[in-house]
TrEMBL record:
Residues 45-277 form the Solute-binding protein family 3/N-terminal domain. The lineage of its organism: Bacteria, Pseudomonadati, Pseudomonadota, Alphaproteobacteria, Rhodospirillales. It comes from Thalassospira povalilytica. Residues 1-31 form the signal peptide. Keywords: Signal. It holds the Pfam family SBP_bac_3. This is Solute-binding protein family 3/N-terminal domain-containing protein.
Length: 279
């Protein structure tokens, strides 16, 4: 074989090697992409750590009605894996507002939270009530909340604004005294000890707190539900993302909304609530 033919064959062989290498790299990259697409994306949501029965830390992990609902929703979305981190309410809202976490549950929708980018569909309807001692309820004409509760001593979960703007205006004006604790159980202890006259919270949260404290029916009769403030829905809230840390967030949020809507329409959310209180 002359030199010219040898060079031609060498070039042809080298070209085949390069083409083979490119094809192999391309196939490997494609295989890696396919493999990656089959791995569920981990979604980290932050949850309240002391909102029984809805979302709380039970000593080992996140628990509560919302936690159970979201776990069931994720079971319908195999493309995602759920990781839940429990934090105090105020801390969770601060992290969300600062763009340090993607989602937090279950805050209510508020006009002054216009920094929240989007909410999930409504998950649960909650009824906010005023619980007072019988002594206070029977000695006052309580027809309009909060007007008729002037000079009352109230307990409140730290960071909660369930009682409404007019209530907190009266607190700022000194017409209502407010004490705050982090948990429902602590605030119920204030009420039982006579340290406060009334307490605002969601009805099922109060019932769960009473169960936690093992309050029997005789003790429960010492309290009176004096007002229904309104009904609220809990959501998963998504905060700002200035650094584009979660470019897939809206796709996930859409997928979660669909799963939650299906669960609601099929009665699964109602069953989870009943099952929670049955155990």
């Amino acid at each position: 074989m002359n030199f010219r033919n040898a060079v031609r064959n060498a070039v042809r062989f080298t070209g085949c090697m390069l083409v083979g290498a490119v094809l192999t790299t391309s196939l490997c990259a494609r295989a890696e992409t396919i493999q990656s697409s089959n791995i569920p994306r981990t979604i980290t949501l932050y949850a309240e750590d002391s909102n029984r029965p809805y979302a709380y830390f039970d000593g080992t992990g996140a628990e509560g009605i919302y936690v159970r609902i979201l776990k069931k929703a994720f079971a319908r979305m195999p493309q995602y894996h759920l990781d839940i981190v429990s934090v105090p309410f105020r801390r969770g809202m601060e992290l969300l507002k600062d763009g340090k976490i993607m989602g937090f549950f279950p805050p209510y929708a508020r006009k002054d939270r216009d920094w929240i980018d989007r909410y999930s569909i409504p998950i649960l309807r909650e009824t906010v009530v005023v619980l007072c001692s019988n002594d206070y309820a029977h000695s006052h004409d309580l027809k309009v909340f909060p007007r008729d509760f002037k000079d009352a001593r109230f307990a409140n979960n730290a960071g909660y604004r369930l009682a409404g703007e007019a209530f907190f205006d009266m607190v700022d004006a000194g017409d209502i005294t407010l004490e705050e604790a982090n948990t429902t159980a602590s605030n119920l202890r204030f009420l039982m000890a006579g340290r406060v006259d009334c307490y605002v919270n969601e009805r099922m949260a109060i019932l769960a707190g009473m169960r936690e404290l093992a309050i029997d029916k005789n003790m429960a009769r010492l309290f009176n539900e004096t007002a229904i403030i309104g009904q609220e829905f809990g959501f998963v809230a998504y905060g700002p993302d200035p650094e584009n840390q979660w470019p897939w967030r809206d796709q996930f949020a859409d997928d979660l909304d669909k799963a939650l809507a299906d669960m609601r329409n099929q009665g699964e959310i109602d069953r989870l609530v009943v099952d929670y209180f049955a155990y």
